[in-house]
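ENTRY TYPE: paired fold submission
RECORD: A
CONTENT: sequence, then structure tokens
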Amino acid sequence: MEGLDYNTQREDLKLPEYGREIQKMVEHAISLPTKEERQKCAETIIDIMQRMSPQSRDGNGHKQKLWDHLAIMSGFRLDIDYPYDVSQALKIAGRPEPMAYPMQRIPVRHYGHLVFELFEKLKTMPAGAERDQLTRMTANQMQRDLHQWSHTSADHEKIADDLARYTDGVIQIDPNEFEFERISSKDLQPTEKRKKKR
């Protein structure tokens, strides 16, 4: 519609957490003719930015961070005497390198790579109370994973077979005698859903 100003038509904000009004103030400060005026305007902007987040006012380096953010919002075009060295703000302004996604191949996805790390640990552990405890934890985690994956009760024989297979036969449990935790479908719901129902 004519005459309406939509955010989608505006220039992107460099630091959206401060909002468009602060960005406009920064642009105004850049446009001021004298360094003295720009300095006074910048200090006023910093005071306003500080009032926007009073909870972090006492934190170490908070003032430095605000001046860094001012430099970033100005595109490093604001010619003033900064009370801090804002050269490190260039690192903040830069986009980080994309992180490599860990693509680990595992035989079955429903257990996840962390359970397979437990299998590897169990293979090398000496027999004893510590290995028995880890076996119990691993078997019960496998039960939870199977339960969530299939949305039905987990088959204890399958867990015993998988535990033996993926530990190269080192860990053998009897599914009829092993004490699995009792799991209800309510226990497997995400925490947020459980909170909403109360």
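RECORD: B
CONTENT: sequence, then structure tokens
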Amino acid sequence: MTGETPLLRLAVCLMAGIVAGCHLPASWPWLLILAVAVVVALLLRQYETGQSVAIALCFVVLGIVLTERQLERECRESSSSATEAGQTAATTTLDRSKTYFLQLRSRLLQRMADQGLTGDEYAVVAAMALGDKSALSRELKATYAVTGASHVLALSGLHLSIIYSLLSLLIVRRRWRMLSQLVCLLSIWAFVLLVGMSVSVVRSALMISIYALMSLGHRDKMSVNTLAFTAIVMLMVQPLSLFDIGFQMSFMAVFSILVTMPIFERVFTQEYLMSHPVVKWLWAMVSVSCAAQLGVAPLIAYYFGRFSTYFLLTNLVVVPAATLILYLSLVVLIMPSLAYLLIYIVGLLNAALLYIASIPGSSIEGLHPSVLQVAMVYVVIAAVTYILAIAGYRSGSPRP
């Protein structure tokens, strides 16, 4: 696998450097070490193995350098008011744009409230469609957390993927593919500004942007290499985002989907799925949900101390409902008379999740694995995935 995904190895090396940069002394001449490593990598171009090792070392040292610079920058920003004033002046234009979009979001939220959206229904729509979670009650957050549906309340890749799919359906044309993709991406980034440019939304928008650019070249649109490239770009800009929970969970979820989906796809033949569209849709939901859960379950247990046992049932309810809610939110802004339909669907979603949360054993609480235990769980998952993948290839199982 590593031979087919060289960027994954570089991303891992960069991550290792970032972790090391948080612990190694800043007094070492890391820039000089980086320069030497680059020169060595260039000199070893005739020796593939040696050059690969040198390039890996370059990325490790680069991670150390970037981490130390960000730590120094944060220290200066927290202690120097002059620096803060300079940065404020330098980002005035961006700040004005952000302020404009936030004011626009407030007007859109007010328009939804004027259409009769109140209470939990308003809170869910505001969070899902416009990224405003201020109206979410503690009880509603607990219900979504216990059932494993919290991810739909925080704008992320799921929401942007739904929006991008809708835009592609409405805008993308083969004859003007480049222009239409540009319009889609500009719309996506306008939405990012509209919802406040949270880290998770920016991360997802960057990934979708890379996906769209790959599609223009008719290459493998989403692959482990694409995901690794996205991680490298984000970590070079903000190295300490590696320690962000959202960063870890989103990338592990996508990575797990990319790696394990071929195993799920071998359960049914392509011919069978094409002739049974309902089974195809259900199996797609089941396989993606299970694949993503494999990637994030250890992290959820580590950070939140729980495991939602009915995550599969939850996703079968939440994903279609979230899609309808996003689409209807846009429709209601244009045709306010349909607000009752949006209120009804959100009410059904909340009621369904409340029922799932009330089922005995819906969540296993009190999980507190150590970092070593989490790492070992991932090792076991990787080993089982590798064995199943090899077994599938050797058995000649039908592939779609």
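NOTES ON RECORD B: Confidence is low (pLDDT under 50) at residues 81-91. The first strand starts at residue 306 and ends at 308.
STATUS: closed
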